[in-house]
Design a protein that fits this description.
This protein is mainly alpha-helical. The chain has one helix at residues 22-41. The protein has one domain. It has 1 helix and no strands. The longest helix has 20 residues, at 22-41. It is flat, with a radius of gyration of 12 Å.
Length: 42
């Protein structure tokens, strides 16, 4: 996480940080829910 670019309100929350690239955004959107649940169970 880039602490200089991440809004303070999100620093202690589960969030994704991705570059603005269409393929990366599509991947993140398609895989976010599964990744969220996996990380939440840890």
């Amino acid at each position: 996480m880039d602490t200089n670019l991440c809004p303070a309100i999100l620093k202690d929350e589960l969030a994704i940080h991705i570059s603005y690239n269409q393929k990366i955004i599509e991947y993140a959107m398609n895989n976010w829910i599964n990744s969220f649940y996996e990380l939440k169970q840890e």
